User: Which sequence fits this backbone?
């Protein structure tokens, strides 16, 4: 994200002055924020003084951290569905492994790769080495035809993220819905909310993808039938990926073709580097769920997307 030198100095000054105050607090609530105009273009010229943040309706003293300055490294968990019905998608996903870490985490962030079908497998723990992340993605193989334990995977990611510093991001590359988890949707949602994890999705329809795939990637007839009937069963049900992204301030980027997943990764990279990172001290007198509201009072025409809640201990 490009900003004027004066604006950038203003942002950094705000971090320096207010961060000293925040360090005396037990915990800080971090709120990544995307601001766009009516045309959908990012608004990049705001300063900390333009924002108003409410915690359960109470205005907060806010600092702003600029990601470009390197003050907020990203921990990125890449969770990829590998059930047999994902065979066509995996042929495309394997080609983009080398893009993810450079575009999203940068040199100071770390990424991990976890897969899920009937089982959950951590192919690569958090690392700064892009080659290891790329190798893990290239090694993806389709598992059993049925099963996509999305919610169980999200719960594991949230647990592993507990001690991660900086910003926490989960990228789900999967179909839109869970299949077979013991964890319930609301529990998965609460897990990412408690850990302050932004959820981004790159979701697809396995059956729709079968119409535009290469012959060598095409599944057997039995697998294709499973895709079809699974898709029918899911019509009219909740898009879990989109719901998680909406609640945590992230985005969902549907795709079908290889260039579609490339576009999704590029959009994710642009978005996480275009966010304003606001923070405020967690209120120590009110445990439980807190509602967050972010405003730009002097520019009501702007559209704001951010996480909606946090959990206080």
Assistant:
């Amino acid at each position: 994200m490009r900003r004027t030198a004066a604006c950038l100095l203003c942002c950094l000054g705000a971090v320096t002055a207010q961060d000293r105050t925040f360090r005396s607090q037990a915990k800080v609530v971090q709120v990544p924020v995307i601001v766009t105009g009516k045309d959908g273009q990012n608004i990049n010229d705001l300063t900390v003084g333009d924002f108003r943040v409410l915690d359960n309706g109470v205005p907060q003293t806010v600092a702003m951290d600029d990601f470009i300055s390197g003050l907020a490294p990203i921990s990125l968990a890449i969770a990829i569905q590998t059930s047999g019905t994902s065979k066509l998608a995996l042929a495309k996903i394997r080609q983009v492994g080398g893009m993810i870490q450079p575009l999203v985490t940068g040199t100071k962030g770390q990424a991990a790769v976890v897969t899920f079908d009937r089982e959950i497998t951590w192919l690569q723990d958090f690392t700064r080495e892009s080659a290891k992340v790329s190798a893990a993605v290239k090694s993806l193989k389709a598992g059993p035809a049925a099963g996509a334990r999305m919610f169980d995977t999200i719960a594991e990611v949230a647990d592993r993220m507990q001690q991660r510093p900086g910003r926490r991001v989960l990228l789900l590359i999967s179909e839109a819905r869970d299949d077979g988890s013991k964890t319930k949707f609301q529990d998965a949602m609460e897990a990412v909310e408690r850990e302050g994890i932004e959820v981004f999705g790159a979701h697809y329809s396995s059956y729709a993808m079968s119409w535009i795939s290469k012959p060598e990637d095409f599944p057997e007839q039995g697998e294709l039938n499973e895709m079809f009937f699974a898709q029918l069963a899911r019509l009219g049900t909740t898009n879990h990926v989109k719901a998680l992204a909406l609640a945590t301030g992230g985005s969902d980027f549907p795709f079908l073709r290889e260039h579609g997943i490339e576009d999704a990764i590029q959009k994710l990279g642009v978005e996480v580097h275009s966010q304003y990172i606001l923070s405020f001290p967690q209120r120590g007198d009110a445990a439980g769920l807190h509602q967050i509201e972010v405003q730009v009072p002097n520019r009501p025409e702007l559209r704001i997307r951010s996480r909606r809640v946090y959990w206080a201990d």
About this structure: The first helix runs from residue 5 to 22. The chain has two domains: 5-70+286-312, 74-271. The CA atoms of residues 110 and 295 lie 31 Å apart.
